[in-house]
Write a structure and sequence with these properties.
Helix content: 10-25%
Shape: globular
Largest sheet: 4 strands, antiparallel
Oligomer: single chain
InterPro entries: HNH_nuc, PSII_CF48-like_dom, WD40/YVTN_repeat-like_dom_sf
Protein name: Photosystem II stability/assembly factor, chloroplastic
GO cellular component, one term: photosystem II
Number of domains: 2
Keywords: Photosynthesis, Photosystem II
Strand content: 15-25%
Strand order of the largest sheet: 3-4-5-6
Domain Photosynthesis system II assembly factor Ycf48/Hcf136-like: 82-188
Structural class: alpha+beta
Length: 328
């Protein structure tokens, strides 16, 4: 799956495969086949396109997707131009790494593409266009899942991710349900000599509800707004408690001040709230001051009236504690 890292915000799909699924579509720019007598493409175009031989060499997910299609044998025919590929642009954030792809066996036009940062994209036209897919059962916790693998057998399908999560569909991906798993997965690490230890028991990766409550309460309050609904994050951004782990400018996540990967504990003293965009750009960097965090922030600012509208949409009411005003 590592070859997908080369694709960042796009995937490359053989147009011959797409043409066989769609009889009418507007062609985008293609890399000419080797046998064609055409002018050489500019270097930038060459750099942005991966040859078929290169892709098949390491791109197991794409190979699996072709094998699921009844047209797979045609796509791999020896007489097909091997350098003819087309870029498909994807609605994903910069830095997202794509990890797996699969199509429904009985409906090769319907497929899913997975990646980091809870990325799930869905296509219903054979990969010509992709749209974000929301699965509520995978969004009800304070985790930022990395969806690693997807597979289908008939209309049944499975998505697995990390931290441990398993999603199941019985209707070809129209609906997905969460299959409960042990919070301790992947389980104990066994070492030669018979000893074992569970790193999850020793160092919890995520903040518990008590730590998150303290983390929220110690954040700076927004003047004139309900502190149970609004706070100012460590970068100086206003965030809304009802907008957790989403991608908007008022969304937020709980962040380790000292990154977990560098020994930081998942305790209230090591917790801060951060606008989602800031937290994901910060990644596991350590020792970043507020000024630098601010440069990661959204440029959009909201007026008081706009915050009222958003609060009404999220909570169904607007609370102004200082004036004892409650609308809704």
């Amino acid at each position: 799956m590592a070859a997908l890292q080369h694709l960042s915000s796009s995937i490359i799909t053989p147009p011959s495969q797409l043409r066989s699924r769609f009889h009418s579509r507007r062609r985008r720019a293609l890399l000419p086949s080797a046998s064609a007598n055409r002018e050489s493409p500019p270097p930038q175009q060459i750099n942005n396109v991966i040859s078929r031989r290169q892709l098949i060499g390491g791109f197991h997910a794409a190979a699996a997707a072709v094998s699921l299609s009844p047209l797979g044998s045609k796509a791999l025919a020896a007489d097909e131009p091997l350098s003819e590929w087309e870029r498909v642009y994807l609605p994903i954030d910069p830095g997202v790494v794509l990890l797996d792809i699969a199509f429904v066996p009985d409906d090769p036009s319907h497929g899913f593409l997975l990646g980091t940062r809870q990325t799930i994209l869905e296509t219903k036209d054979g990969g010509n266009t992709w749209a974000p897919r929301s699965i509520p059962s995978a969004e009800d916790e304070d985790f930022n899942y990395r969806f690693n693998s997807i597979s289908f057998k008939g209309k049944e399908g499975w998505i697995i991710g990390k931290p441990a999560i398993l999603l199941y569909t019985a209707d070809a991906g129209d609906t997905w349900q969460r299959i409960p798993l042990s919070a301790q997965l992947p389980g104990d690490m066994h070492h030669r000599g018979g000893s074992s230890r569970s790193r999850y028991n020793e160092r919890p990766r995520f903040f518990d509800s008590k730590a998150k409550r303290i983390c929220w309460e110690k954040a700076e309050e927004v003047p004139g707004r309900d502190p149970e609904r609004w706070r100012i994050d460590a970068a100086g951004n206003i965030v809304c408690k009802g907008l957790h782990t989403c991608n908007g400018c008022l969304c937020y996540e709980y962040d380790h001040i000292i990154p977990f990967s560098k020994g930081g504990e998942s305790v209230a003293e090591n917790c801060q709230i951060l606008q989602t965009r800031v937290n994901r750009l910060k990644s596991d960097k350590n020792g970043i001051d507020q000024g630098l965090l601010k440069t990661y922030s959204c440029d959009i600012k909201f007026s008081d009236e706009e915050l009222d509208i958003i609060e009404m949409a999220v909570y169904g009411s607007v609370i102004r504690p200082g004036n004892n005003v409650s609308l809704g």
